[in-house]
Write a structure and sequence with these properties.
The chain has helices at about 5-10, 15-20, 30-35, 35-45, 45-50, 80-90, 100-105, 105-120, 135-170, 195-210, 215-225, 250-255; strands spanning about 20-25, 60-65, 90-95, 125, 130, 180-185, 190, 230, 240-245, 265, 270, 285, 295. The protein is of the alpha/beta class. It has 3 domains: about 5-155, 3-Layer(aba) Sandwich (Rossmann fold); about 175-260, no CATH class; about 265-300, no CATH class. The chain has a 5-stranded mixed beta sheet with strand order 2-1-3-4-5, with helices on both faces. Helix 10 packs across helix 11 (about 215-225). The relative contact order is 0.08.
Length: about 300
């Protein structure tokens, strides 16, 4: 059922029409941006809705710089911050989003926007109607929509996690393999056919067994001018391998990777929020002790 325009227009005053109508457009991942073009076109129809409600085209701004960004609050959304700033300055008469989930997936950001909108007299619009955050019933409904959006994200994550965990426990979860191992089309894993890669990886293990120290292996590689292979991208073949100078970190990564021993391991690392640096989007990962690994299957 289309929204009741007559009721919506009662809330829209000349003061709102004198300010801007902002259309906020977002999709959660780069893959959605590439493949789900209909979603973008659908969200852009809000421009016509703003015009129909009385905004002049020159007063309609489209904020689409967060395409490919999650609204879960894990990473910064520059356009959402710019939108909040415009609302705080009193430049915005109404904010349109196709759904609440497009604007925010967490209550912290959602209620921040509602508080600013209520303070500055800015309306919120979605596919169901027009809301005034200063009105009790509208504020209550917007709060419920935000809570449902956050709960929806939680349930989606739980389903994805359960499906991933089921594959992990069966040893079927496809993980990135270290350099020197390749996965065939039937999901079986073999040594890289490149004999030079096999030789260098084997040399690292043999020298460690002989010397008993990763540092001694590093010194040997430097003395003999031996480069270490590192896979570049997900492809197979010499074009996807880079030969680099050895380092203690690279040698330790080879020596401690369970995949070289034929083991399937999941959950060797976990995120550590306390070490997160300001502005960093990817979480800081730390190693877990072996007894805390989520899954360990020998001879996989």
């Amino acid at each position: 059922m289309p929204p009741d325009l007559s009721l919506s227009q009662v809330k829209i005053t000349p003061r709102h029409l004198d300010r801007k109508a902002v259309i906020y457009i977002r999709q959660s991942s780069p893959k959605q941006v590439r493949e789900h073009l209909d979603s973008q076109l659908t969200q852009r129809t809000l421009i016509h809705r703003a015009e129909h409600l009385g905004w002049h085209p020159e007063r309609i701004d489209v904020f689409d710089g967060d395409l490919g960004q999650s609204a879960a609050g894990v990473q910064e959304r520059d356009d959402f911050k710019a939108l909040a700033a415009e609302v705080a300055l009193g430049h915005v008469g109404i904010v349109f989003g196709w759904q609440v989930s497009r604007l925010a997936r967490n209550n912290a950001e959602w209620y921040q926007l509602l508080d600013l909108a209520a303070l500055m007299g800015t309306l919120i619009g979605d596919t169901d109607g027009i809301y005034d955050p200063r009105l009790y019933n509208d504020r209550l409904l917007l709060g419920l929509k935000g809570t449902m959006s956050e709960a929806e994200l939680y349930l989606m994550r739980q389903r994805l996690h359960a499906g991933r965990l089921s594959k992990v426990q069966r040893g079927e979860y496809v993980q990135r393999l270290p350099t020197g191992l390749v996965r065939l089309s039937d999901k079986s894993v073999i040594k890289d056919p490149d004999q030079q890669i096999q030789h260098v990886i084997g040399l690292v293990f043999n020298k460690f067994q002989e010397c008993g120290s990763a540092l001694q292996v590093l010194r040997y590689c430097k003395q003999q001018e031996i480069l270490l292979p590192r896979r570049h991208g997900n492809g197979v073949g010499p074009d996807h391998v880079r030969w680099r100078q050895p380092s203690e970190e690279a040698i330790c990564a080879i020596l401690t990777n369970p995949a070289y021993a034929g083991a399937f391991v999941h959950g060797r690392r976990t995120s550590e929020p306390r070490r997160q640096a300001p502005g960093r989007q990817t979480p800081v990962m730390v190693r877990r002790p072996m007894e805390e690994w989520q899954c360990l299957i020998q001879d996989a």
